[in-house]
UniProtKB/TrEMBL annotation:
It comes from Actinopolyspora erythraea. It holds the Pfam family PepSY_TM. Keywords: Membrane, Transmembrane, Transmembrane helix. This is PepSY domain-containing protein. It comes from the Bacteria.
């Protein structure tokens, strides 16, 4: 029974997983690809001290005055001179706010911090990060196709788990045989398939699970758990106390970027200084308030280990920090989810994670090729070569296996739908082939 399920997982998921492994390798090396493609825009050439951030932003906004300011990422102070530029992201005026996805028409303009001159711009939709992310998650067909990648990941998890059980030795002598690489014929490919699968299984399970946590259907269980245990990621409060009286007009100006379409948003220099004084380090993203009476936000964009994700809310008029959230304030489940996403995106340990995930993806490609080769060598001519059916599933399968599959089908809805659909089709086909007795 496990052999049949393992075979079905390969039949349904292997072609999709093969494509996702290749796109995953490309996405893992996205930072290097982006630097190669947009090196001119990302490179600063002027010498001397940095110009005021407000001047840099004004220079960027003059290139696209019809757009509104979405965020500013000042050149990192610890970046080598000649590499870091200030990134100014502009979006259509009517665009909504989504911290995980840039709206259509968003563009990032890069500015040399020493000269305040524009070095280039990148349309966010054409950025390697966005392009490869969509290719990996929905094959660039559209969001409606994202369940396809969830289907592949769900069945890949089943294939890895069932493959481990099928490979697992039944004694000490069998353990030695299973770890011995066989040379001739079909045994060579089967041995390669098993050994690579066992060696990569732990990493593959971790990689699959961290990817499933933010899918549409399986990921909904994580969202439910975070809601039930009050484990959502905390956010700084941008509400300002001043709502009237002296200074209220300045406060409104500091909280409404739309009042200053000519260039510089009020208060950005004070906000940047307050972020530095608050010991926010590395790459810091500044976001203007969305409406009057709100504060700016300044947040560390650091996905490497040890994680630094402090954020502060800053009054643009006074430069006062009105709220702060640090990594230590995150609930445990929120931390686990964030770390899992950073790992899956090859960001958590930098180059080490990129190399590890590339090795796992290559192992997956070898697994699929070897698995198909074993199938082609074993498959009878003119037949699918599926493992034979051995009695009733409910009567023959051990209770532990049934409970395990029941749990997986609850946690992975796409898996449940496709497995039940397959069983229904198999039953209909078998009934159609049964000779009539009437």
């Amino acid at each position: 029974m496990l052999w049949r399920v393992h075979f079905l997982g390969g039949l349904l998921a292997a072609p999709l997983v093969f494509a996702m492994a290749i796109t995953g390798i490309l996405y893992a090396w996205n930072p290097q690809l982006e630097y190669l493609l947009h090196r001119k825009a990302l490179t600063a050439v002027a010498e001397g001290p940095d110009r005021p951030l407000s001047e840099q932003v004004a220079s960027a906004r003059q290139t696209r005055p019809e757009l509104r300011l979405s965020s500013v990422t000042p050149a990192a102070p610890d970046a080598p001179r000649g590499e870091a530029t200030t990134a100014v992201t502009l979006v259509p005026v009517a665009a909504g706010s989504n911290r995980f996805e840039k709206p259509n028409g968003a563009v990032t303009v890069y500015v040399d911090p020493a000269s305040a001159e524009v070095t280039g711009s990148v349309l966010e939709a054409n950025r390697p990060d966005e392009w490869l992310r969509n290719l990996h998650s929905n094959f660039r067909i559209g969001k409606f196709a994202e369940p396809i990648s969830e289907l592949a990941a769900s069945w890949l998890l089943v294939s890895v788990l069932t493959g481990l059980v099928l490979w697992w030795p039944r004694g000490n002598r069998a353990l030695g045989r299973n770890f011995r690489f066989r040379i001739p014929g079909r045994s060579r490919w089967r041995s390669l398939h098993g050994l690579v699968g066992v060696a990569a299984s732990a990493g593959l399970v971790l990689f699959i699970v961290t990817g499933l946590t933010w899918t549409t259907y399986a990921g909904s269980w994580v969202d439910l758990a975070r809601g039930q245990f009050d484990s959502d990621s905390p956010e700084v409060s941008t509400v300002l106390d001043r709502t009237g009286g002296p200074g209220s007009e300045d406060s409104a100006l500091s909280g409404a970027d739309s009042t200053d379409t000519a260039g510089t948003p009020p208060g950005i220099d004070r906000v940047a200084a307050a972020a530095r004084e608050s010991e926010l380090t590395g790459i810091v993203v500044l976001e203007p308030p969305k409406e009057p009476g709100r504060a700016w936000t300044a947040e560390e964009d650091d996905s490497s280990w040890p994680v630094e994700q402090s954020a502060v809310a800053v009054d643009g008029t006074t430069g006062d920090v009105v709220d702060r959230v640090d990594w230590e304030d995150y609930p445990l489940l929120a931390k686990a989810t964030s770390l899992g996403i950073d790992f899956h995106q090859a960001e958590l340990f930098g180059l080490a994670t990129q190399l590890l995930l590339t090795a796992l993806a290559v192992a997956l490609l070898v697994l699929i090729v070897a698995g198909y080769r074993v199938w082609l060598l074993r498959r009878p001519s003119g037949s699918l070569g599926a493992p034979p059916r051995v009695g009733s599933l409910l009567r023959e399968a051990p209770v532990s296996v049934l409970l395990g599959f029941a749990l997986l089908m609850v946690l992975l809805p796409v898996l449940a739908i496709t497995l039940l659909g397959y069983l229904a089709v198999e039953r209909v086909v078998r009934s159609a082939r049964r000779p009539s007795t009437g």
